[in-house]
Amino acid sequence: xxxxxxxxxxxxxxxxxxxxxxxxxxxxxxxxxxxxxxxxxxxxxxxxxxxxxxxxxxxxxxxxxxxxxxxxxxxxxxxxxxxxxxxxxxxxxxxxxxxxxxxxxxxxxxxxxxxxxxxxxxxxxxxxxxxxxxxxxxxxxxxxxxxxxxxxxxxxxxxxxxxxxxxxxxxxxxxxxxxxxxxxxxxxxxxxxxxxxxxxxxxxxxxxxxxxxxxxxxxxxxxxxxxxxxxxxxxxxxxxxxxxxxxxxxxxxxxxxxxxxxxxxxxxxxxxxxxxxxxxxxxxxxxxxxxxxxxxxxxxxxxxxxxxxxxxxxxxxxxxxxxxxxxxxxxxxxxxxxxxxxxx
Length: 344
Ligand code: DAH
Known about the structure:
Helices cover about 40% and strands about 20% of the residues. By secondary structure, it is of the alpha+beta class. β7 (about 250-255) and β8 (about 260-265) form a beta hairpin. The site of 3,4-dihydroxyphenylalanine has 11 residues, from β9 and β10.
């Protein structure tokens, strides 16, 4: 039996020697060391031996199987390491390969300018009106009548305003000022709101004019609001938007819905006030219109002008963006040329 064990052992050693892969080693292990393997068959017959033989043959069998286990494991580990190295080198990532180019979108300059203006005005205490108070399709009532713009005012002329076929009095709004009326009809003072949005005018399109553009309207109504408050808020807005070093100027003007009215200029960003083509030699650029809310407008929406007063302002987003970024043609905002849009 001892000889039988030694014979099988040398066969097993030869088989282990021959095995060329992990799976071949697994076969060797199954052949010799599994429950149905050759050594177990021999161990089954131990019971027929004398006690002394049982001990010597048994311990030899154990010694041999553990030697085989050890050498199979050693070889298995070697193969495993080799296979792992092969796999790792095959799956190596070349970190120097250039990545895939994914074109990245950008926020449109009119959107970022609007966001910037809105956040400045929010920091000064204004909140944005709900969209229901700022519709782009308006009735003449909100766009003109309630803003103290009489029926024969040239602003109503079909030249300027887009009328619709919905009804004779339904227009595409020509200004965001109608939002003032929506808000004052629905809210009691104190009111401190802004309303950004698109407006439409029947213009011949050129470098300075488009038939739609964007405005931001502002309204502040409370007790004891004065022209000093108007100046303070708008000076602060311009200081933040254009930078502290740029002087402003308030020029007396006229709007039907404000009295008194003013236009606000900022010192020309191109020539610094010396006079150039951009500012037509004046040294100043107009940035917004403003004024104290006309008592007639307050009366119209049921706010007592003896108790309350307020100021309003309106600015063009395209104009403010053009002044800040020295853009000389309004059409650039609307013809989707990525070479232009990419710069912001
Ligand atoms: N709605 C005016 C326009 O489109 C701008 C404006 C001027 C708005 C004065 C105002 C204001 O609220 O007080 O030209």
